[in-house]
Design brief:
The protein is α/β, with parallel strands linked by helices. The chain has a five-stranded parallel β-sheet with strand order 5-4-3-10-11, sandwiched between helices. The protein has a four-stranded antiparallel β-sheet with strand order 6-7-8-9. α9 crosses α10 and α17 runs antiparallel to α18. The longest helix is centred in the C-terminal third of the chain and has 40 residues.
């Protein structure tokens, strides 16, 4: 695929990371606002619990979760939803400011989908906030499950080697993550490279009497673990531990064998079947179970305990609860993980994403749309709570809010950049009330961002605060004349907003230059600045001159003497040909802005005080122009349809008004009634049954209104009416006059 140099560099970093399992130092925090923190109130994060009260009751019977000691720790006031407690809990690292984080990676047998994007982009945002905002030293480990029943089955179906299949889809996964600007983990662990460590880990569990061998496989002994007196099984979902269907889901095909002591025991080591890949062990040839790989590899790299373990909510039980049990059984002590984080489900049109429902969307498919950029997916994650369910509608409409927010930020930084180029610090800098008002608002929004991030990484609130900063700065600039704007104040607001978007991973550009697109786009913009400014200034003055000419010509046409009009506008000729010329010049100016510059990847926008421009992807601009054209076409069609319906209604009313009052029902209701009296009121319905008095009274009231409409029509048309009008009206309404009664004929 065609990728820009930044994407290529990111892919290369992933390859280096995969080869060396090390990815360089974590960046230090750029700021740590000195603000008073309000402790976050406990909020349930039960996820799929059957009922909050029932889940709470289940948890109340468990031994309490023990927070790490605060002594000598780097504590920032950050609280996070912890699946081990079902509440927000204050984050305290186990050691100093170091955060040991293990994230469950993908099982690589197929293309990564939007559910993966939701999880990995979501946790990338949290990781960046912890490292780049709060200042923790985050060490991230992620596994790759490259030994699994699904991989083996898929490779057998295709007649290939399971390793080749796994490596192919792993490479595709890293490519998708690079496209989404997800930072590479510091350490990558593949199951196939840690089989010896897995075997040793299982042996320790057996030695501690929490596992047993049976027919060449090894199973975790849930009953022995629960009866130990110091361990808890199913801490995160105690309501699910007796759900055998959930247990079997995590076991694969081996879950249906009968070699277990207890149906709720789960496999640590699977005996190999004929034709399956296998590795040697004290219990015979086989391969690791699904749950054990994470326990063994995470413990091998990070030790005991781990600060953070993360994954999708669907992994909480049985996978993550089983991981906890295995690890605590191996070390024979509790609380292997201090904070377990789970992202919420991603639903497609309010339904679970699945291939059977044909709502399965891969990351590459989503990014194939020229209007959808990788950062739109990230912004979509930012405006949704990371630990809550998120609904998505495929296509541009599902991204509309994210695209609109992205456009606002792009225009804002472009506006500030343009403004900074045109103003100088030589202007007066003394603050007036409007500067103090803006400064207070900026400080409040900075505090709002901090409080939001301390409260369980509440990025939706943080994003609202950043948008408020943009709005307040725009208002200040628009209400302040040139030469009176205080540049340092505007720069402070824009720099903070840019830094936060950089922390969130939305932008990669230079903070000093506020280059929202960054990379090569930023270099291109700097190189062409003088040319575009020159062109834009020429266009602006040409446009203003044409407007003056047009104004003068219009004034002359409205009775103002041509010389006076010309003098007022600063022009000498105001005849019709000049007016046409002015219109032509304005059309050329619009064409330059709307047609030619977008083809060069330049977005130009007129403003009352001048203009702003940005260097943007040509494809994005053209796709956005096409979308706007389609929207305009749709609006035009809707307007035309509304006008057609209105005209039809008016024609119908006029046709009805032409009919004399005594002929109205016999003309328009002939299929409902068979006889009418002298007033034109129906006396018998179509079946020959008498019409009730109450119904006739309602009809009589209607005829009073119709009589007024008919009289108004007679006045406007200059007379006429009678049988000819009735026939024409009936034809216009699609009816034929019915047989008149003796009373109607007599009248």
């Amino acid at each position: 695929p065609n990728v820009d140099s930044r994407h290529r560099r990111q892919c290369m970093l992933y390859e280096i990371s995969a080869a060396t399992r090390s990815f360089g130092p974590v960046r230090r925090a750029f700021l740590h606002p000195a603000v008073t923190h309000r402790p976050a109130s406990p909020v349930s994060c039960m996820g799929d619990a059957p009922a909050a009260s029932a889940a709470s009751a289940e948890r109340s019977r468990l031994p309490p979760w023990n927070p790490p000691s605060r002594e000598g720790k780097f504590v920032t006031g950050l609280h996070m939803s912890n699946s081990l407690t079902g509440q927000k809990t204050e984050f305290i690292p186990h050691s100093g400011r170091t955060v040991k984080w293990y994230g469950c990676g993908p099982t690589v047998y197929d293309a990564a989908h939007l559910g993966h994007a939701r999880t990995y982009v979501g946790f990338d945002i949290l990781r960046r906030i912890m490292g780049e905002y709060f200042g923790y030293d985050v060490k991230m480990v992620m596994n790759i499950t490259d030994i699994d029943d699904k991989i083996i089955k898929r490779s057998q179906e295709g007649g290939g080697d399971f390793r080749e299949l796994a490596r192919h889809w792993e490479a595709e996964f890293w490519s998708d993550m690079a496209a989404l600007n997800v930072m590479a983990p510091d350490v990558i662990t593949r199951v196939s490279e840690y089989v010896d460590e897995v075997v040793g880990f299982i042996q320790k569990i057996i030695d501690n009497k929490y596992a047993y061998e049976s027919s060449g496989s090894v199973y975790f002994d849930v009953a022995a673990f629960k009866s130990s007196g110091q361990h808890v099984y199913g801490r995160m979902e105690p309501w699910s531990i007796n759900d055998q269907n959930r247990v079997l889901e995590g076991e694969g095909e081996l879950g249906f064998v009968s070699h277990k002591r207890n149906p709720f025991d789960f496999a640590l080591w699977k005996k190999a079947k004929p034709g399956e890949p296998s590795w040697p062990s004290p219990w015979g040839e086989g391969r690791p179970g699904w749950h054990i790989e994470c326990s063994a590899m995470a413990s091998e790299i990070l030790g005991f305990p781990i600060d953070i373990h993360s994954g999708g909510i669907d992994l909480r039980f049985p996978h993550h609860d089983n991981e906890l049990a295995q690890s605590e059984a191996c070390f024979d002590k509790p609380q292997w993980v201090n904070y377990f984080l789970h992202t919420g489900h991603l639903n497609i049109n309010h339904q679970k994403m699945s291939k059977s429902l044909k709502n399965f969307t891969t990351i590459k498919q989503a990014l194939d749309d020229p209007l959808i950029r990788p950062r739109h997916i990230r912004i979509l994650c930012l405006i949704n709570r990371w630990d809550s369910e998120m609904n998505f509608t495929p296509g541009v409409e599902g991204m509309r809010q994210a695209i609109d927010i992205d456009t606002k930020f792009m225009k804002f930084f472009g506006f500030v950049n343009n403004f900074m180029r045109k103003t100088s610090l030589k202007d007066e800098q003394k603050w007036r009330p409007q500067e103090q008002k803006l400064a207070d608002a900026i400080d409040q929004r900075i505090n709002d961002v901090h409080m939001a991030l301390c409260d369980n990484f509440n990025t939706p609130q943080a994003m609202l605060a950043l948008q408020s900063i943009m709005s307040e700065v725009n208002t200040y600039i628009n209400e302040t004349s040139e030469g009176h704007i205080r540049i340092p104040l505007v720069q402070k607001a824009a720099t903070f907003a840019f830094k936060m978007m950089k922390v969130f991973g939305v932008v990669v550009g230079d903070v000093e230059e506020l280059n929202y697109d960054g990379g090569e786009a930023a270099d291109d913009q700097k190189a062409i600045e003088p040319i575009v400014d020159c062109l834009a200034n020429f266009r602006r003055h040409t446009r203003l001159s044409a407007q003056k000419i047009l104004k003068a010509a219009s004034s002359a046409h409205n009775g103002v003497p041509p010389p006076a009009a010309a003098a007022a506008a600063g022009v000498s000729d105001t005849d019709g040909s000049v007016k046409d010329l002015a219109k032509g010049i304005l059309c050329q100016c619009d064409s330059l802005r709307d047609e030619e510059l977008p083809n060069l990847g330049i977005q130009l926008e007129d403003r009352p005080d001048g203009y702003i421009w940005n260097k943007v992807s040509k494809e994005q601009l053209l796709a956005e122009r096409q979308r706007k054209q389609e929207e305009e076409d749709q609006k035009r069609k809707q307007k035309e349809e509304a006008a057609r319906q209105l005209a039809q209604q008016r024609a119908k009313k006029e046709a009805e008004a032409r009919v004399p009052t005594e002929q109205y029902y016999s003309t328009f209701k002939a299929d409902e009634f068979s006889e009418f009296d002298g007033e034109g009121l129906p006396t018998l319905d179509a079946k020959g049954e008498p019409v009730s008095k109450s119904q006739r009274d309602k009809m009589r009231k209607f005829l009073v209104k119709h009589k007024k409409a008919h009289e108004e029509w007679l006045k406007s048309s200059g007379g006429g009416g009678g049988a000819a009008s009735a026939a024409a009206a009936a034809s216009a309404n699609g009816n034929a006059p019915g047989p008149a009664s003796s009373a109607s004929a007599g009248s």
